[in-house]
Specification:
The chain contains one helix and two strands; from the N terminus they run H-E-E. The protein has 62 residues and is of the alpha+beta class. The chain has a two-stranded antiparallel ribbon. It has one helix spanning 10-20; strands spanning 22-32, 35-46. Strand 1 and strand 2 (35-46) form a beta hairpin.
Length: 62
């Protein structure tokens, strides 16, 4: 759904991204006086779960 300014709604954007999957990656380094104190490498895969891609967790019966 587009708005008056030709933009796309956040819900529609998230729906499109999760339908195909999104890979997020990043590096974070905390350094003081050119000395690396903390380095964090982040990688994540975000995707929706459906019949084509089943959930890796067991389904709990109510």
């Amino acid at each position: 759904m587009t708005g008056d300014d030709g933009g796309i709604a956040l819900v529609d954007l998230l729906d499109r991204l999760l339908a195909g999957g999104v890979v997020l990656a990043g590096d974070l380094t905390l350094r003081i006086a050119d000395v690396d104190l903390v380095r964090i490498d982040l990688k994540a895969l975000v995707s929706s779960v459906g019949d084509a891609v089943p959930s890796p967790w067991k389904q709990v019966e109510p």
